[in-house]
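Subject: design request, 215 residues
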C-alpha cells in the first residue's frame, strides 16, 4: 500500500520524505489555507519535493469552472492530480478531464455507489472518508472493503485512497481491506513508528552496553 501525506506543510513533507515514506501528497482548501502563499505557490513548492502525485482541489462547483481551474493547476507540474468533489457537476468534469489525460481524484466519497460512479466516469483515484463515517456511527472501513471488491470484480483501474485517517489502526485496517493508498496526517505517520516495547527494549540494550563499558 502506498502512503500519501495529507498536508500542505512543506516542513512536514520534507520530514516524511526523509524517511522514504511519501509516495504522494493530498491537499485541500483547508490545508492550503493554513500555509502562506497561494494554492499555486504551495503546490509548486510541494512538487519540488515530491515526484509522485500531488493533489490540488478545485473550488468551483460547476463543470466549466472546474475544468478551467484544472487546466490552470496542471500548468504547475506534470504530477498534479485534480481533486474533484463527488457531485453531478464534478462527475461531468471527471469525464471531460479523463478524456484529456488529466488525472483526477474524486473526493468526499461516502458510499460504494459513489465510488462506482466515480470509477465509471474515469477517475484515477477516489477518496472515501472513513473517519467521518466513523464519526456518525458507521464502520467507515466497510466502504473500503466493498469498493475494493467491486473494483476487483470488474478490473477497474481506479485506485482507492483511504482518507480521513485518524490513527495507526486506520492505516492497518485500510491495508487489510485492500486500499491501494492511505493518505495520512503527519502526526499519524509519526505514531506508526511508536511502540512501548520498542522503547523498553532499546533502553535495556543501551543500559546493558553502558554496564559492559564500565566493567
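Subject: RE: design request

Done. Sequence follows.
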Amino acid at each position: 500500500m502506498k502512503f500519501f501525506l495529507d498536508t500542505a506543510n512543506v516542513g512536514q513533507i520534507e520530514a516524511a520524505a526523509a524517511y522514504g515514506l511519501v509516495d504522494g501528497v493530498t491537499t485541500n482548501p483547508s490545508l492550503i489555507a493554513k500555509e502562506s502563499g497561494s494554492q499555486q505557490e504551495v503546490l509548486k513548492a510541494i512538487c519540488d519535493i515530491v515526484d509522485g502525485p500531488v493533489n490540488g482541489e478545485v473550488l468551483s462547483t460547476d463543470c466549466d469552472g472546474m475544468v478551467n481551474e484544472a487546466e490552470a493547476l496542471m500548468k504547475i507540474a506534470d504530477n498534479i492530480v485534480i481533486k474533484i468533489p463527488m457531485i453531478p457537476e464534478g462527475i461531468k468534469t471527471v469525464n471531460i478531464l479523463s478524456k484529456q489525460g488529466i488525472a483526477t481524484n474524486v473526493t468526499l466519497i461516502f458510499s460504494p455507489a459513489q465510488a462506482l460512479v466515480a470509477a465509471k466516469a474515469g477517475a484515477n483515484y477516489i477518496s472515501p472518508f472513513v473517519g467521518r463515517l466513523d464519526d456518525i456511527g458507521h464502520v467507515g472501513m466497510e466502504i473500503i472493503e466493498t469498493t475494493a471488491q467491486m473494483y476487483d470484480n470488474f478490473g477497474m483501474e481506479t485506485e482507492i485512497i483511504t482518507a480521513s485517517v485518524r490513527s495507526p489502526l486506520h492505516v492497518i485496517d485500510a491495508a487489510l481491506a485492500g486500499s491501494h493508498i492511505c493518505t495520512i496526517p503527519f502526526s499519524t505517520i509519526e505514531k506508526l513508528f511508536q511502540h512501548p516495547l520498542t522503547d523498553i527494549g532499546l533502553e535495556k540494550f543501551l543500559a546493558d552496553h553502558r554496564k559492559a563499558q564500565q566493567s
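The first helix runs from residue 10 to 18.
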